[in-house]
Amino acid sequence: MNTTSHAPSCVHDRAIPSTGANNLGMNDRVKRLRRRSFEAQPSLSIERALIETRFYRENYGKYPIPILRALNFLEICKRKTIYIGEDELIVGERGPRPKAVPTFPELTCHSVEDLHILNTRELQRYTISQADIDTYEREVIPYWKGRTQRERIFGHVPKAWKEAYEVGMFTEFMEQRAPGHTALDGKVYQYGLLDLKRRVEGELGALDFMNDPEATDKQEELTAMSISCDAAILLAERHADLADEMSLTEKDPRRAAELRKIAEVCRWVPAHAPRTYWEAIQMYWFVHLGTITELNGWDAMNPGHFDQHLAPFYEREVAAGTLTRDEAKELMSCFFIKVNNHTAPPKVGITAKESGTYNDFTNLNIGGIRADGSDGVSEVSYIMLETIEELHILQPGSAIHVSARTPERFLRAGCRVIRQGHGYPSVFNPDVYVQELMRQGKSLRDAREGGCSGCIEVGAFGKEAYVLTGYLNVPKILEVTLHDGVDPVSGRAVGLKTGDPRGFRTYEELYEAFMRQVRYFVDMKVRVSNYIDRMFAKYAPATFLSLFIDDCIAKGRDYYDRGPRYNTTYIQCTGLGTVTDSLSALRKHVFDDKSFTMEALLGALADNFEGHEPMRQLILNRTPFFGNDDPYADEIAVKVFDDLYDAIEGKPNTKGECFHLNMLSTTCHVYFGKVMGATPNGRLAGRAISDGTSPSHGADTHGPSAVIKSLGKLDQVKSGGTLLNQRFLPSLLKREEDLSKLASLIRSYFALGGHHIQFNIVDSETLHAAQKCPEDYRDLLVRVAGYSDYFNDMNADLQADVIARTEQETF
Amino acid sequence: MLLFDIKRYAINDGPGIRVTIFMKGCPLACVWCHNPEGISPRAERLYTRKRCIGCGACVNACPAGALTLTEAGILADRASCRACGRCAAVCPTLAAEMSGRAYTADEIMREIEKETLFMDRSEGGVTFCGGEPLSHPADLVALLDRCGASGIHRAVDTTLFASPDTVRRVMARTDLFLVDLKHMDSGSHRRFTGVPNEPILSNLRMIAEAGADFLIRVPLIEGVNADEENIARSATFLASLPWRRKVVNLLPYHDIGKGKHDKRGTLYNPANLPLSTPSEAVLRRCIDQFAARGITASVGG
Which CATH number characterizes residue B290's domain? Predict the structure, then answer.
């Protein structure tokens, strides 16, 4: 089964990939760091939970919540184990060692059973010792019982919501993690924490307790921000102390000098604004670390336009002769490996099925445009591309941003990395996402400084809290519609009674019933999301993160409580391909051609098409499907997209702003497929639904240009992001000129208003999967000069031959 | 006119991103042909065993009674099949397909114009191939004129096995020829393709002398044309032409065309001629041989 919806899932979590010819640029230090990073087994660390639980036990109730949270953060920074690894230049770990992941019991508290499962499950395992489990059971779990954010939320939600949630109509991100998706702008390279602290104190001094009814709240929040500055500075100083101490006993004089340098860097940043390229990277890393230590935000944290921020440091130092290109690349590699060492904290319950990945989704934006609209590509952009190509690691994710101004040379360099087949980088279109952001009300400058954080969602970097609330299973809403409000898988009545579909005389009647259900579930989700928003504002303010997001300091309000300049809430709709193809099949075969009745189709769905293979084949082969530049299907997709937009857009959130449509799926389309029966597009029960805005697996049989034409018909500016995965056989990217053609294809999509595209270069593993499950891979067209045929149609010998060639051609 | 395929995002049939139009019917019958379904100028039934679920719908639909459902799938009596296409119309899995569908020029232009965005950005265009596009001069000329009027770059992928007059008419409306050069010895050419090579070589000289732009594609097959002598003769001949581009694409032989024969129910290479893929060493030698004559040869294209 193809489950690659999100670039990171294309990269294998554990195995050390053979890098072939790519070792060229990596020096020995980077090779060693990379190997250790691969070899480190993700584990759970109970240290943070222990510090926090003791702190809460003693202090809860003594302080206002924001100050309590800041003091808790200070306590962690004061007590946590400091780690500096062999060979490291950029330092700082969230846990006591690489890939040691803390827990966040204030949000969700793992049970003993959870810990055992995590320790023993086969995939995405997190090791933990029995002694630690015992300690957790004794010290941590009893205190948090009834006090976690998750319990607060589940104690509140209406029964109808809970039922819909349980059958898989939607997911809810914040039931066990904090709202994340945060990317920074350039502030942290201009101001140190001492500067920010002075600004916070200025605001404190200016509070007007006479005329401002919120002055007390602001005082609490600002005081908490000030404490958070101290906490992060302390954390850095502890690293400096350890580095100095290690340098005294270090036998290798070169390493001893490096350790002294590390100490010097950590004594300067984050207290002060960085002066050098090295300090700039370390500065960002401390801010990153603080943010993911303070809370567990969904989609860790993101430096935003990292190349644009680093370019001035790089250029200045290279000109002055104090930094070489190789040194700059080495530091970049050290940073990448740091990110890779920060495995996502594990989840419990239902979301463990949804997102089985170690990835914490830091997604680097490379290239793009600057705030003044000029081209953002610099030498640092190329250094980052080289680093991606050489390291080939799970994290960080990366994307090239290609506007009309982006030089062809840069796009081609990006295409060359894409050809390596790691799934990175994906490609974004600033010319469209700037419009998306401006449509939502951002200023031109703030929109241009924006980009994409974790996956494909857009936001104004350093100025916005954009909260993804969870995925909406749109195909399942159609499934429920076809059963008059009942989920046929569980038998539970979760939706509205919109009528027995056998009674629908027209396609339009069916479609209207479907849309009524869509609006019903959207409204249900909005209500609970708004409640959760308030829970975070009240109980889990992010007083450290708030320092870096305008205008939290100026407003004296938290990141989660209207502090940011912009406050967006997204609902991510999944399965556009599946739902379009299902509606197209219903329209064509039941209403237009009358090839079979609704009754017959419902019977076949109930039987999972067993005994109805001719009907299923008719659907698979004689239905206009989305992704083929076929107006019959594409018009349905456009209508669904526009109507989803209407259902979501403008619903008020708790921050004086509103909800927007997003079209992301990450790996959730796999989970959503599992909770669904067979669908009218011929998809069998339990199979994944389509990802993002991509066509259904194998439905696009007319090549990539037809896919792009179909996607180009959606008015993507109305969304906060769409996602297109395109499968490519390596033979399509063999020659240099093929890269130019790929670049043209990307530019063409972007000219049509495309937001994002990424390429999964098919490897032999995919071809083996295609042999096992041909219908999901009907799009695999094998092309040799003067010849082409569908992979599925080839006999076993020829398939074996194509597999062998593919193995040679991929790197 | 009868087409057997229209391929979008075609990147191996000339510069840029192209649409390739496959015109049905070819006067040659090369033993290694990759697209044997393009040889006959008439529509024909193709059958893909792997897709067949044995529902028998085609057996019932066939007015000639030419089809039988067996353990091994559908058996067709090729002699009584009238290629009416009813089997393909009812087949739910597309196991039965018709190769060769009639298109009007308008329909073809609509398909081509779907890709203009990509063509414009990549300096691509349209490529007419086959079969042998020169076998349908009137249709081809009409389409070339319409593409020309829309400013679309036109390539013709051809054997040049046609009357000089046809070649001249097409040449006036073609931006680039992709010419297949299979063998310099007419007897061998006839043996492997069914036709002599004199008309091809003289047409090639004619278009070269007229200043037409072309590149040469050589399907390189050990046992047929990869030997030192034939390559030397090819290179000498090509070097003697007045020719700006001087580019040869070598397409190493592959027996991937076998699968298409299975679909047609015909036998691949029935005379069992010794065909094999040229080794790296042979490829290198061929490239050197061309280079010695000032011609840039490369693998693929």
Answer: 3.20.20.70
**pLDDT: which is higher, A578 or A701:** A578
CA distance A502 to A187: 60
Q: Based on the domain organization, do B75 and B175 belong to the same domain?
A: no
C-alpha dihedral, B154 to B158 to B164 to B170, nearest 10°: -10
Q: Both B63 and B195 in a single domain?
A: no
CB atoms under 10 Å from CB of B274, counted, come to 9
Provide the residue range defining the domain that includes B29: 2-40+101-299
**Is A455 an annotated catalytic residue?**
yes
Please say if A457 is a catalytic residue: yes
Q: What is the pLDDT of residues B3-32, one digit of tens each?
A: 999 999 999 899 999 999 999 999 999 999
The partner residue sitting opposite B251, judged by closest CB among A705, A737, A785, is A785
Count of helices and strands (H, E) across chain A = 31, 14
Tell me: do B147 and B294 sit in the same domain: yes
Number of residues assigned to chain A: 811
B241 and B199 assigned to the same domain: yes
CB burial readout A469-501, b (16+ within 10 A) else e: bbbbbbbbbbbbbbbbbbbbbeeeebbbebbeb
- The total number of structural domains in chain B stands at 2
Contacts of A655 (CB under 8 A, 6+ apart): A465, A533, A561, A562, A567, A569
Kindly report the nearest CA distance between residue A5 and chain B, in angstroms. 23
**Chain A positions in Cβ-Cβ contact with residue B50 (cut-off 8 Å):** 792-793, 795
pLDDT in tens, A596-626: 999 999 999 999 999 999 999 999 999 999 9
- A-interface mutation test, from B117, B249, B254, B263, most A Cβ less than 10 A away: B117
Asked if residue B131 and residue B268 are part of one domain, the reply reads: yes
Task: Kindly name the residue from A175, A317, A457, A464 that is annotated as catalytic.
Answer: A457
A584 secondary structure, DSSP code: H
Whether residue A785 is predicted with pLDDT greater than 70 in this model: the reply is: no
Closest alpha carbon within chain B to A623: B92
Do B54 and B171 lie in a common domain?
no
**How many other CB atoms are found less than 10 A from the CB of residue A403?**
22
Which residues in chain A have Cβ-Cβ distances shorter than 8 Å to B115? 705
Confidence (pLDDT) at A355: 45
Q: pTM (2 decimals)?
A: 0.93
Cross-chain CB nearest to B301 (options A618, A748, A785) = A785
Residue A787's pLDDT is what?
59
Same domain, B35 and B49: no
Q: Which residues of A touch B57 (CB under 8 A)?
A: 614
- Give yes or no: residues B135 and B231 share one domain: yes
Contact assessment for residue B200 and residue B216, using Cβ atoms and an 8 Å cutoff: no
Q: What is the CATH number of the domain that holds B87?
A: 3.30.70.20
The domain boundary residue, chosen from B99, B115, B138 = B99
Boundary (domain end) residue, out of B71, B99, B127: B99
**pLDDT per residue rounded down to tens, chain B (301 residues):** 999 999 999 998 999 999 999 999 999 999 999 899 999 999 999 999 989 999 999 999 999 999 999 999 999 998 999 999 999 999 999 999 999 999 999 999 999 999 999 999 999 999 999 899 999 999 999 999 999 999 999 999 999 999 999 999 999 999 999 999 999 999 999 999 999 999 999 999 999 999 999 999 999 999 999 999 999 999 999 999 999 999 999 999 887 778 888 888 888 888 888 899 999 999 999 999 999 999 999 997 6
Please answer yes or no on whether A615 and B92 come within 8 Å at the CB atom.
Answer: yes
